[in-house]
Design a protein that fits this description.
With 165 residues, this protein is an alpha+beta fold. 15% of the residues lie in helices and 30% in strands. A hairpin with a 5-residue loop joins β1 and β2. The protein is rod-shaped, with a radius of gyration of 27 Å. The N and C termini lie far apart (92 Å).
Length: 165
């Protein structure tokens, strides 16, 4: 079974198995794989097994996912591949050890797409809590001014009626 090993900048280490075909990773407790480090977003990314390979996709995290110092949105895993999630170094351990003749492949032999090459469709995300409240259009001050003008007109009518009586 595939797994990852991770090391935080403080030296804490951990290991987690990828137990299903889709494994959410992040700092929040509702993820299948939780790494409690401040540089990891609450819903940082997810591992997906497409039938032939594991792919890690960054879900628009704040501190990003990096491969050899370059920010990436998605990368295909290879046994022994090293990448960084936030500030946490991660090593992917595949289902099988590479064969002797494949031993010349470097640990960074993962394919990736550059940052911003494919935009993330956040509307397809599910299970990450309520949608954010839409931003106001800025009509609050205008409504307040209209209310003050209406109150001023009402006061003028009230005053005019009291003067004539």
């Amino acid at each position: 079974m595939a797994k990852i090993q991770f090391t935080t900048p403080e030296g804490q280490t951990g290991e987690a198995e990828l137990v299903s075909e889709r494994v959410a990773l992040g700092r929040a407790a509702d993820n299948a794989l939780v790494i409690a480090h401040d540089s990891i977003s609450s819903h940082h990314g997810e591992f997906i097994f497409d039938g032939s390979a594991w792919i890690f996709t960054d879900l628009g995290s704040t501190n990003g996912t990096f491969l050899t110092g370059q920010r990436v949105e998605s990368l295909e895993m290879a046994h022994g591949g090293v990448f960084t999630i936030g500030h946490v170094e991660v090593v992917f351990i595949g289902d099988e050890e590479p064969a002797e003749e494949d031993s010349y492949i470097a640990p960074q032999s993962m394919t990736h797409t550059g940052y911003g090459a494919t935009p993330i469709d956040k509307s397809r995300r599910s299970g990450f809590g309520p949608k954010p409240k839409p931003k106001s259009h800025g009509y609050g001050p205008l409504y307040g001014l209209a209310f003050l003008m209406l109150a001023g007109c009402a006061y003028a009518i009230y005053s005019a009626m009291n003067l004539s009586a």
